[in-house]
What we know:
Elements: E1 5-7, E2 14-17, E3 23-28, E4 47-51, H1 67-81, E5 86-92, H2 94-106, E6 112-116, E7 121-122, H3 129-145, H4 152-163, H5 170-176, H6 179-191, E8 193-194, E9 204-209, H7 214-226, E10 231-235, H8 242-245, H9 247-260, E11 269-271
Amino acid sequence: MKHFMINMEKKLYYLEEGKENKEAIIFIHSNLLSNWIWKKQEFNDYHCIYLDLIDHGKSQINMPFSIENCVELVKNIITNDLKDKKVHLVGIAIGGTIIIDLLYKHQNIVETAIISGVNIKNKFIIRDDKRIEELLNSVKECKINILDKKPSNFIIHGFLAEYGIGKKYFNQLKQSINTNNFIKITEKYLKYRIPNENNNFSNLLILYGTKEYPKVIKSAKIIQNHFPKSKVFSVKRAIHLWNIIDYKWFNETIIEFIKSKNLKNKDYIKQAM
């Protein structure tokens, strides 16, 4: 069982353990969720930070949600709370997007970075704003015509099915999902574009599950093109929240990369690009 210390002073709410350790890992959750998704990640030799992003979980602060605002608040945790420590970042989906943006702005404060399940677009591709607006309008109509008229339990069961996790996570998911923020956060995620220039950060691991959406696999290639020294690995039969479902694989992958800055092919994971 984890025993957490709770930080109540910082703008981003987070739980922590292993504060006495000299190296730190910051875990950044997927969009619309919160720090509970890291319940299966426990690394006794590291100072672990499990944070809630703006408008997620308990980080209900007077600041609009955006990738850029989240980046600055994560940077503040690193420079103020984790100074003199080697810092490793782990993020899923929008958490991975935040890590990418942070590496462009503050890569000198990061030792290694590991991202999984990221959906991102490339500025070298003509931006189809009309298509994004149409998608967002569809989401808004779905919220008004369906989600707002359904009991909350119906919505939570739908997310459980989408993420492929069991009913035992029902209460945590119910506390995380806020349909009022759904459209705003989705819009920020969809409209983010990776910067044009290449980045020389070398200790970046890009992961995707073989059962994730094709756009996630395509995004892995886009990210690698911008981080030419990065490594891309696929995870056998994994889906979005494989850190919960296949947590032993996930934990082994994280620790191996942090320690060696490299990975070896295994039965469940192999270099993809």
